[in-house]
Amino acid sequence: MTDTTARRYSAGAMIFHWLIAILVIANWQIVERAHDFEGAMRGTVMGYHKAVGITILVLTVGRLLWRSTHKVPPLPSDLAGWEKTLARTVHVIFYVLLIALPLGGWLANSLTGRSIDFFGLFTIPPLPVGENGDLAGRKIVVTAGGTQEPIDPVRVITNNSSGKMGFALAEAARDRGADVVLITAPTDLRDPPLVRVTRVQTAQQMCDTVLHGVKQADVLIMAAAVADFRPAHPDSKKLKKELT
Question: Is 27 a catalytic residue?
Answer without folding.
Answer: no
